[in-house]
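Work Package 3 (structural annotation) set out to generate three-dimensional models for the target panel prioritized at the project kickoff. During this period the team completed the workflow that converts sequence records into discrete structure tokens, so that structures can be stored uniformly alongside our sequence database. As a representative example, we reproduce one entry of 221 residues exactly as it appears in the project archive.
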Amino acid sequence: MSTDKLQLDYLPGHLEILLEQGDYNAIEKLLRAFRTEDVAEALMDLRLEQIRQILEHIPTELAGDLVECIDYDYWRDLLSALPQQRLLDILHYLPSDDAADVLEELDEDTREALLEATSSHEAFQSVTALLQYPEETAGAIMNPDIVLVPQDMEIDAALNMIRSNVESFKDINYIYITDARPGQADGCTAAACPDLSATQHPDRRRHDQRRDCRQPVYGTG
């Protein structure tokens, strides 16, 4: 058995001790030492109330990542009892399609209360729209968040624009490039979103890896 696997086996016990001590800084540090998927699996050895305590006190982005990795069968019992504001913070962090999935699994009273609380929030409009589609349809599982850039934008300018809004674009897989001009019909192509850590030549234009939008484009954005 590897050292990492051995340490992971002891993770639930360590978390229980830290919960008793109320040391949430140590809990955060411990959780970040392992893969999120492995942590989510290890959390299942704790009581639901203990998992809720952890989700309530760790940073929102870490809580959101864990929620995405926790089996959705647990979402109703686990998340419905979280304080409303905390649950709203987590939903706001999640991509629109994942947030809609979570809302679908919550008990009806919690879901309706959240939808009422977010009815005037522009950020949640795409989530609400996804809930209007029948379950398991393409519309219900799509990610409506996209990045649209003009055809003549240099690649460095496009990447800098995305980097400056990295939290908003963190789940984008495709960039849509439009060649529409005033008085002309809209048209666009799609390019796979590059590694944002990579540097590109400043004179390079966005003509690589394009796909006509008339063809199916698969991805989360």
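The chain has two domains: 3-141, 147-212.
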